[in-house]
């Protein structure tokens, strides 16, 4: 098997971190579990991470990077202010299982001594994403595509709420929730609320 570059290995590890948290819970994230998933020895992971908290940060950083990339690519491809948001909503289906990390991290009582640190990381993550969504909406407002009096911060939170609430509802019902039907209806309401 060819040796991966450091950057590719870090991304591979971060994806595995998100998968473990999303599928098995934060309490099951450990160096041995991660090494087993990647089929490597645990000592290889210590070159990249010294703690569970660093692993969680790496997973969140990768998720944020992927979200920002969606917005960057689709803003460049379209003059429609809502297109990047719609594409992001559509792509949510592809990484839905990973988004279950939000409730698992935010509400986890495991390792309680680091709860405040995790809460701060989650807040920073959400602030970044909300800022990016708000900037996209602000551009559309300035270009005259969206309501002139649109509060872009409130609209960004409403849009993000579509994703977070559907993930949370799916999570607490044990998967017994039609996420796609909900997102379609919520998106239609969102478009009516922000459009001219």
Task: Provide the fold topology.
Elements: H1 6-24, H2 31-38, H3 42-45, H4 52-77, H5 83-91, H6 96-99, H7 101-106, H8 115-142, H9 152-172, H10 179-194
Helix pairs in contact: 1-2, 1-4, 4-5, 4-8, 8-9, 9-10
Essential attributes:
10 helices; Tetracycline Repressor, domain 2; 196 residues; single chain
Give a short synopsis of this structure.
With 196 residues, this protein is mainly α.
Describe this structure in words.
With 196 residues, this protein is mainly α. The protein has a domain at 59-194: Tetracycline Repressor, domain 2, CATH 1.10.357.10. Helix content is 72%, strand content 0%. It has 10 helices and no strands. It has helices spanning 6-24, 31-38, 42-45, 52-77, 83-91, 96-99, 101-106, 115-142, 152-172, 179-194. Helix 1 (6-24) crosses helix 2 (31-38). The N and C termini lie far apart (55 Å). The model has no long low-confidence stretch (mean pLDDT 86).
Q: Mean pLDDT, as a whole number?
A: 86
Please identify which CATH superfamily of the domain at 59-194 we are dealing with.
Answer: Tetracycline Repressor, domain 2
CATH architecture of the domain at 59-194: Orthogonal Bundle
Label the structural class. mainly alpha
- What's the gyration radius in Å? 18 Å
Give helix and strand order, one letter per element, not per position: HHHHHHHHHH
Helicity range of the residues? over 70%
């Amino acid at each position: 098997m060819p040796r991966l570059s450091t950057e590719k290995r870090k991304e591979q590890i971060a994806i595995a971190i998100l998968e473990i948290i999303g599928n098995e819970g934060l309490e099951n994230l450990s160096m041995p579990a991660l090494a087993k998933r990647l089929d490597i020895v645990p000592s290889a992971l210590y070159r990249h991470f010294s703690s569970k908290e660093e692993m969680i940060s790496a997973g969140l950083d990768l998720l944020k990077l992927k979200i920002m990339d969606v917005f960057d690519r689709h803003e460049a491809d379209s003059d429609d202010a809502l297109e990047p948001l719609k594409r992001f909503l559509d792509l949510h289906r592809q990484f839905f299982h990973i988004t279950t990390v939000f409730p698992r991290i935010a509400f986890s009582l495991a390792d309680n001594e680091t709860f405040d640190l995790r809460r701060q990381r989650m807040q920073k993550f959400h602030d970044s994403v909300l800022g990016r969504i708000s900037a996209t909406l602000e551009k559309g407002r300035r270009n005259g595509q969206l309501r002139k009096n649109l509060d872009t911060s409130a609209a960004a939170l409403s849009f993000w709420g579509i994703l977070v609430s559907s993930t949370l509802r799916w999570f607490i019902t044990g998967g017994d929730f039609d996420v796609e039907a909900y997102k379609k209806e919520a998106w239609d309401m969102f478009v009516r609320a922000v459009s001219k």
